[in-house]
């Protein structure tokens, strides 16, 4: 009982933190650090709290269906605790209703929601009666609105996805946004190889498999207490990197002696991949506007023992003014642009609630400026890869198309859009490889 109660309490605390602006993964890490949970508890808490964050709209519909007070008028602490209870009843099929209700009510009882224990109990019991009678909240007959409610996505976003690929595609993508994301690692090929690393994981009873079609990718099948406690972390044997993102650096085919610019580089998943592929023997300049994020990149370089990368804090759109000596200097350039991150919504449960069409439009302007201002740093016959972790065409293929129309000396070599899929792991991703002829 006590563990059940503590799991729900921790999950509720995560929702409180996220509602006050903390990112989900930071909130999870902070809260978990205050308890002595085992890996199974952590997996449960992650599923429950991240599920509640993703399904916020759906769970609010249930509050409106069941309670006299609509969700917007509920005291926030009560609203989030109701989400904890409702999510277990509506979305987690392995938890008996009685356990879901009693453990959630216990949180109310033992915290400053004590006076609302009866309300929590009544609403959750009423939910069970409604589930048993198939009495669900009313949802619109309009397919798009219905999808937005069922998959708990802002209506504007569903409208966009439908515009991009039609309703059938949108249903698959929307479902993928609510699945549990994979945990993928990329081994540091300068220090280890796949077999050696998999054996080390096996010795520690960690179930992991090689990711097909990737030369250095490993998928973790069990949930570690702390990713940093996995074997080889301190010794720089690996980094965390989604499998789709591992496609990007190899597109540049980094080689010994190459002069490479990584224009938006922090925290360095792709910079370090570029360096490893070139056997730490290229000349890589890693630029980023954020000092804080560059510090993380720097510590990754140290941990992985990579020597071929120099970091530079700068606005990449003005590199051409700050460092005119870099004009036509690079053989290879990566622009892993700041983007809406729509391909990673499953991984970042809170981001669907902070995104907006306006923010995307601002990002498109920045992406255009980055391409225009960084391109002159590429040598003749050089290669540039532009990548994002979004599936929004205006940030991806349409942006590249516009750029190609304006610059006749550039050739599109290849283009790849990976869509998030419910039945396939991996984030959504886009990459275009262009050459300067
Ligand atoms: C998608 S993230 C890069 C992720 C990184 N390439 C990796 O694989 O770990 C985009 C980065 O662009 C940086 N950024 C945004 N605007 C920038 C600008 N004008 N100049 C340089 N960096 C910028 C952000 O600070 C952020 O670190």
Short characterization:
The protein has 437 residues and is of the alpha/beta class. It is 46% helix and 15% strand.
Structure description:
A seven-stranded mixed beta sheet has the order 7-6-5-8-9-11-10, with helices on both faces. It has 437 residues and is of the alpha/beta class. The chain has helices at 2-19, 24-32, 39-54, 56-66, 76-91, 97-110, 117-132, 143-150, 155-176, 194-203, 269-277, 291-304, 319-322, 351-354, 357-374, 397-406; strands at residues 183-187, 208-210, 217-220, 238-240, 259-262, 283-288, 309-313, 330-336, 378-388, 410-418, 429-436. The chain has 16 helices and eleven strands. The mean pLDDT is 96. The longest helix has 22 residues, at 155-176. Bound molecules: S-adenosylmethionine. S-adenosylmethionine binds next to helix 11 and strand 6.
Key features of this structure:
11 strands; seven-stranded mixed β-sheet; alpha/beta; four-stranded antiparallel β-sheet; binds S-adenosylmethionine; 437 residues
Quantity of strands, as a count: 11
Bound molecules: S-adenosylmethionine
Mean pLDDT: 96
**Poorly predicted runs of 5 or more residues:** none
Rg on CA atoms, Å: 24 Å
